[in-house]
Amino acid sequence: MAPATELAKAMAHTTQDNLFRHNLIVLTVAQALGAASPPIIVSLGGLIGQQLSDNPALTTLPVSLFNLGLALGTLPSAFIMRRYGRQSAYFIGALLAILGGLVAFTGILNHSFVIFCIGTMLAGYYAANVQSYRFAATDAASDAQRAKAISWVMVGGLFAAIIGPQTVIWTRNSITDVPFAGSFLAQAGLALLAILVLTRLRSTPPMQVTASDAPMRSVGQLLRSPRFALALGSGLVTYGLMVFVMTAAPVAMVGHGHGVDHAALGIQWHVLAMFLPSLVTGRLMARFGTERITAAGLVIIGLSAIAALGGFGLMNFYLSLILLGVGWNFGFIGATAMLTASHTQAERARAQGLNDFVIFGTVALASFFSGALLQASGWEVINWMIFPAIALVLAPLVWSIGRKA
Q1: Which domain holds residue 171?
Q2: How many domains does the chain have?
Q3: Model confidence, pTM
Q4: Alpha carbons 36 and 162: distance in angstroms, whole number
Q5: What are the tens digits of pLDDT across the range 230-282?
Q6: Is 4 inside a domain boundary?
Q7: Does the keyword Transmembrane helix apply (predicted)?
Q8: How far apart are CA 245 and CA 380, in angstroms?
Q9: What is the DSSP letter of 213?
Q10: What is the CATH number of the domain that holds 104?
Q11: DSSP state of 280
Q12: Which ranges constitute the DSSP H helices of 289-347?
């Protein structure tokens, strides 16, 4: 009887491992397509905002509303995942991305700032789903596989770093007399391709509580948990600073005499730097610990501000954006791994949804504030503000690392 039991366990483990590997491939490809949309919106949103809005302070509003759509999309998306499974939620998100691309295209075509903003906000809901791919990769993963699973799904962003900006360069003048409109048709096309890929995702059980699960903590109890709060704070500061700077960067580059193609390439280098380290981030976390890698990411973001403050040359912008991307990778993947270790299986939908809602709600505010601050005070002030924000979370991180040493 014992050999039969052992055989059954081995077969179950093999089935789970195959499910993990299959979904990891599907999610990585879906990440490559889905993560290509934000570079399109970030590269062009502020520039189109300059063309369509009469108020300079609203220049980056399309990017801010994209981030707001992302924040607002986290909770309903988490509910759909919990009730009906991840695949259903991801299909809905991709369909809204197609609609968003078409609406944004219509806004540009009709020179309507409001319609264009609605389109970017719809695309934000899709981005909320794409952001959760990193969590979906851990559904069938063992404890030892989690950090590497998150890291490998993020590798899909390497391809997105090429696909998104190159889509801008090749399609922005594809429709005669309507600059940038073709890029948003292409964005809708990328979402359609993502749907085809997501049909290959194999279902894991809906995220529901079972009788064997420990009682779920409330939102307030989660926020009062030191481990959860530190993970949330680390992700919030890392992502918030990245968007705060990245939103303003294309407009600042063009404002200091660099071309639109240079701005798009700057975002391409930035997004490459965001995801290229994913090839080693998982191994680095396994060796040095998630808190240390997260802290290193924050320090690198500080170095990006120093590079930006060195001048307005093209290389200053590029170096700053590259360091910003590397810092985001270490900080955000580290914070994500910290988060998955801070909640129970029963709490994963609530904890993950709460985490993303808080982070991307803050990101939406950061991106809007970034545009207004750029117009009022300039590129240098934006980068000076990075240092106090880093200090707020780096201090408790270092304290936590010291306690474990």
Answers
A1: 14-202+219-404
A2: 1
A3: 0.74
A4: 8
A5: 999 999 999 999 989 988 898 899 989 998 888 878 888 898 898 889 888 88
A6: no
A7: yes
A8: 10
A9: S
A10: 1.20.1250.20
A11: H
A12: 290-308, 314-340
